[in-house]
Specification:
Blueprint (H helix, E strand, L loop, with lengths): L1 H14 L20 E6 L8 E9 L3 E10 L2 E11 L3 E6 L9 E2 L6 E2 L3 H9 L9 H10 L6 E2 L4
Parallel strand pairs: 4-8
Antiparallel strand pairs: 1-2, 1-5, 2-3, 3-4, 6-7
Length: 155
């Protein structure tokens, strides 16, 4: 009987513990937008080497952002931009400790793409985790006054 009581108490103690992030402390779980993303590009890009915006979709070769340009604390322009991992020098996701930027292999100087596991975690936090259909993409482009997604190249 004492043995069973010990296991019961141990089970109750473990069941009462909170493991992992809590929803009340994770802002992205309480709103419909994708996570706020800041991308530092390799030098030579006309956007000043930095893009900020909402993460719309995670693709195999890069990220689709609804980037915003701000002046005097107000948004002056929004546009849909696809940024390949190879053009990214660093990426910061609001409240996340996740590394998806392409990293250099020190031995060969080749870029190693982000792992499938990291991309999957990030995909779940994007605005469209199920993917962005062609008709919906057209509607978003029209709303932003674009005819096509702007693609950032690696300079």
């Amino acid at each position: 009987m004492k043995f069973q009581l010990t296991y019961l108490l141990l089970y109750l103690a473990i069941a009462g513990c909170q493991l992992g992030p809590r929803i009340d402390k994770f802002e992205q779980a309480r709103r419909p937008e994708g996570i706020a993303t800041t991308i530092k590009l390799y030098s030579g890009h006309p956007a000043g080497g930095r893009l900020e915006g909402e993460l719309l979709e995670v693709r195999e070769h890069g990220l689709l952002l609804n980037a915003r340009e701000t002046r005097d604390d107000s948004v002056v322009e929004r546009r849909l931009i696809f940024v390949p991992y190879t053009a990214m020098q660093d990426v910061d996701f609001d409240q996340l400790n996740l590394r998806v930027v392409a990293q250099h292999n020190a031995w060969t100087e080749d870029q190693v793409p982000p792992s499938v596991r990291d991309r999957e975690k990030l995909r779940q936090l994007s605005r469209f985790p199920q993917g962005l259909s062609a008709p919906l993409l057209e509607q978003l482009l029209e709303a932003e006054g674009q005819t096509a997604v702007e693609v950032i190249g690696n300079n």
